Amino acid sequence: MMRVQFRAPAKIWAFSSLVSIVWAILLVGCFRKASPKVETEPATPTVEAPSPPVIIEPEPTGPPAGSVWDVVTPDGRLPKDLLQSMAKQGADIKRNDVAEWKTLAVDVNGDGSKELFISNVPGWCGSGGCSVWLWQRTPDGLRNLLPSHNLLTLAVELGESGLEGYADILLYHRDMESTSQQSLAQERYQWDGKMYRSQGKTFLGNYLTTPLPAEAWRVNK
To answer: Which residue from 77, 143, 152, 217 could staple onto 128, CB 3.0 to 4.6 Å apart?
Structure first.
């Protein structure tokens, strides 16, 4: 009798322990389900700044019609067609003679391209100065804008803009102010639509004592 009474409480205890374990497992599962999910923000991706675009400047397509653009090459040579034009004027275009020429590239009509003055050509200078050419490239070839055969000058200067945007050209040379007075004269040439023509002169003073303007281009060495 005493052995039967001992086993019954043991079974009851074992069953209670099993129920407690199952109940604990269920509570843990419920707790896990009830716990809120912790979300983390994604890391901000690193964006590299875009590289600046590479701009390639187009190469020049050539001189615009109407002006001498490549009047003097980087090695100091003059274009062949210009030398041929000077030869037609009577100039000697041998290498040694051409080396003595003086040149000045300048935009006389404001179109952004340059014309070319040429002077100090052997055989075209005297005591009163030198002849001067002003070459301009056109669709029909080169043309000289000055009446070069009819003038001698010591220096050249550009004046105010006139017809078609062509600047006046001021030539400085020796001239007789009277029968006994040699004077330094400033002669103004203006563009008439086809060529530069003289519009009169101004006497500046005694030829021997009156200096040339400092900014004027000297036509001889």
So the answer is: 152
* Whether 144 contacts 135, CB under 8 Å: yes
Closest CA to 143 of 123, 115, 171: 115
Residue 17 domain flag: no
How many separate domains does the chain show?
A: 1
Q: What pLDDT was estimated at residue 113?
A: 83
Q: To 5 degrees, how large is the angle CA 115–CA 98–CA 61?
A: 40
The domain containing residue 109 runs over which residues? 80-218
Q: Is residue 203 included in any domain, yes or no? A: yes
Phi/psi of residue 201, nearest 5 degrees = -135, 160
Q: Is residue 75 part of a domain?
A: no
Global confidence as pTM: 0.67
Residue 169, beta-bridge partner list = 158, 189
| Residue 84 CB coordination number (10 Å) | 12
Bridge-partner residues for 138, per DSSP? 141
pLDDT in tens, 130-142: 999 999 988 888 8
